Amino acid sequence: MKLDLEAVEEAAKQLYIQALKVLPDDIKEGFKRLDASETDPTGKSILATMIKNIEVAEETNNLLCQDTGIPIYNVTIGRGVEMDGHAMKEAIRRGCTRATHEHPLRSSVVHPITRENEHTSCGRRVPVIGIDFSDAENEVVIEMVPKGSGSENGSFLKMCIPAEGVNGIKAFVVDKVIEAGGRVCPPTIVGVGVGGTSDLCTKLAKTAAGRPLGSVCEDPEGAALEVELSDAVNSLGIGPQGLGGDSTAFAVHVETAATHITMNPVAVNIMCHSARRARATFTPAGVDFGF
Amino acid sequence: MAHHEITMPCTEDDVRKLKAGDTVTLQDWLFGIRDATQIHMFDHARETRLDLAGHAVIHTAPNAKKVPVSNSCPAGYESICIGTTTSMRMERFTRPLMEREGVRMIIGKGGLGEDSRAAFRDLGGVYLAIIGGTAALETTWIEQITDVYLDDLNPESLWQFYIKDFGPLRVAMDSHGGSLYDKVKETGQARRAEVFAKMGIGG
Fold first, then answer.
1. Which strands form A249-257's sheet, in the order they lie side by side?
2. ipTM for this prediction
3. Residues of the domain holding A13
4. How far is A257 from chain B (nearest CA, A)?
5. How many Å lie between the alpha carbon of B167 and the closest alpha carbon of chain A?
6. Nearest CB to A171; choose among B65, B109, B201
7. pLDDT for A114-160, tens place per residue?
8. In terms of domains, do A91 and A134 share one?
9. Contact B86, B131 (CB under 8 A)
10. Domain tally for chain A?
């Protein structure tokens, strides 16, 4: 299969707009689940408003949240795909710029030192474009995540030492959820990276935060940690928007990687309740849009 | 837990009546500010021709479309999506906003800190919590972008909105030292110990 770059550009534009307007079904189901179990009146009323907002966004064809985020495109390339990788990245940038100009969207991206905004949602090394490979034949998947700043500012890394053990990891996660409080727009998905190098650990936390609700860590040790930590953070009483309640997180997701004998890194990356993502799958039959 | 309908601008008396846990719906006027707006106003000493005295400011930076000036878009902007950002980054600007500009209400998400609590108590102000991430709904409470200043900072300009039935918002920090975040914080600390014990973690 030869990857059509015009289709990539168009998809990069459509995905950004779609992600900002329609939440994936698993997140909508997550809201229903929390709404059914929330016991705090304030928490329950806040969840009701969030659910109402999802409906209003779809009815008025509007953005769920004003924060257009930092655009992230995760590209997964299957086998037998013929493509010009550099040109593909350029096509994604063009699509991202077009979404910003043509919708139009607020460009939330600035130079880190001058703070200048090019009003394209692009800048140096942004959009963030991640590249990975799969064994699927004749398939390219592009996932788009507009990552909001409120929750991205709830990102933490600690290079624990082996003597701190897994308890050091658990304590760090619980303490960071308390520290983040209402600032990260709970109910959240708490992404946790365990192991690897510092950069891989942080990347794992981001991957975990972006996983669909209901998915489980492939590593059984990570999966067990997910259950224990989900229960722990939802016992803290932080609640929706940090104003009290049971619904602090939809879930805690964990991703693991092997690490060094002298290392024990843990990272936290948080996804707000506007857990937006959209996906385009390119095959010889055409482009299919989903979540 | 009372509900209050307040037409802006308001007085110190109006604000002093509000207690943490009450709800408020605002009418008529609202101003939008954000990080860069306040950095430029207070760190770079830029003044504004917009009078904020007795008004409410919301921590925002809207998605707005540039259009020709008309009766419905007097500032040359049409509102697309207006929501609220995390307040805590702007904590150090609460007191100067109140002292220099006369602001009475700050609307945001996630809460403010101890300096703001003191400023609200000393000068007569409140923090109103809106529900973050519900911008599609919030946009329906805004009738018009009526004016804009410091627009070189766009989207972090100083915006003036004409609003209708903006709320209900929760009084999360009042002018008497009351804060809804205190109780959640206390609960969190108490439960932390229980959670750690359950997981077999000391300390």
1. A155-160, A264-271, A188-195, A249-257
2. 0.92
3. 5-20+64-148+275-290
4. 23
5. 11
6. B201
7. 999 999 999 999 999 999 999 999 999 999 999 999 999 999 999 99
8. yes
9. no
10. 2
